[in-house]
Amino acid sequence: MYSYDVIAGLFTLPFIMIYLALTVLGIVVMWKIFEKAGKPGWGSLIPIYNFYCIMDIAWGNGWLFLILFVPFVNGIFGIITIFKFAMAFGKGIAFGFGLLLLGVIFYPILAFGDAEYIGPQ
């Protein structure tokens, strides 16, 4: 007979492996996006600095990341930033919705596709 711990482990291991794979993918993708935008790739790994860089990429002013500390406003501002982020790479509103709703697919497209950083719009 199997114990419940072994059965739980067999069901948990695939989820852990998927989580680790998505984490590594996210690191590689954001590293590549930062480099496309002229930012240091390692900047995507530093917790507060990466928000500064994302705001600088999307808005042209990195200090706007401080707005993310304001409750309720941060959600709306974050969504607008995603659309600005897409436009900074020459993509349209539809691609912004893709980043918002299906980020695991659209961020790698942004990183490894032919999109070039054109600056804040």
TrEMBL record:
Keywords: Membrane, Transmembrane, Transmembrane helix. The chain crosses the membrane at residues 6-29, 65-86, 93-113. It comes from Anaerosacchariphilus polymeriproducens. InterPro entries: DUF5684. The keyword Transmembrane applies. Pfam families: DUF5684. This is Signal peptidase I.
